[in-house]
Amino acid sequence: MLSLILLALVFTGCKKSTDQELASVDDVNRRAGPGGHDNRCRLRSFVQSDGFNENFHYNDKGLADRWFVDYGDGTTFDYHITYDRKNRLKSSRMIIDGDAVNYTFHNTGNRTDRITGYLESTGDPYADIYYTYNRKGQMISLDDNVADLHSRFSYDRMGNNNRIDFYIGSELFYTYLLTFDVPNKNPYLALNGVDFGFVSNFFLAPYFDKRWNNTGTFIIYDNGSPIVVADDDPAQTQLLTGSGNYLTYAGYYDFVNEYYYDLRFEYENCGNENCDDKGINSASPVRATTAMSAKTKLRKIVEMRSGNMKLELMNFKKDCISRYKKGR
Q1: CB atoms < 10 A from the CB of 284, how many?
Q2: pTM here?
Q3: Across the chain, what does the average pLDDT equal?
Q4: Each residue's pLDDT tens digit, 239-264
Q5: Which domains does the chain have, with CATH numbers?
Q6: Beta partners for 76?
Q7: DSSP character at residue 146
Q8: Closest CA to 92 of 198, 218, 174, 180
Q9: Alpha-carbon span 143 to 280, nearest angstrom
């Protein structure tokens, strides 16, 4: 039985990389300095075929000072980012629907241990998120005491996040299973100054992986029983890289839902003719070529953080399960 769920997970690959290939990619990240960032190329924009897009701006130090998120349906989030004297994340002011949320980053060394957020108009708590790490410095948990939402992260031998478990309270809500077999450089490593998806990826990803995943499986739980509602077919996907081996395009196919979709990334300041500096104007609408995916819908619910967020999440799950059980 086939589902109707539309989900953009991630993509391609058909062969195992050699140890030499793995080492070459890791060397590039080590030379990039703290956080694995390359100070030359900078991520300018990211566009999905369902209309979701992100745009970035950088300050005089080359650090990202604006992260503009557009869901393609009129819903936007505009994050303005500041740094301390050590170039660590200090604060972010998110503008939404005529109001704003002020986030503060609490750091120990180069790690963010906590983020607090307050609604500007009322001063009410908006988020209180704690992060914990293992001995390797990998983020292993994320807990929001305001929303009672939680994520747990696991890693493969290369240090890429290959499993995400997301909970509402103590209830396991969904699981992502990911693989990273194809050498490439994660586009978000070119988002200088920002190490993890504190914006729309609050509960969907820890620190940015060295690679972008080549397959992904999305599982939702029905009274504890796992239901695979989306799964990438690596045989029908395509992954392209450009300057610095950064990912520029991914086209892939969810064989559970019989659904094609793609992602496109653009960069600036790469120092050669292969770098596309045009980017995307956040004031210009991005034309959607597919319906809004389930992943985008989920991100939107989490980022909106309405007073009915838990109910919206449960309704989202019910819709996913209902569509799966009905088939196409």
Answers
A1: 10
A2: 0.81
A3: 81
A4: 899 989 999 998 888 888 888 889 99
A5: 19-326 (2.40.160)
A6: 70
A7: T
A8: 198
A9: 34
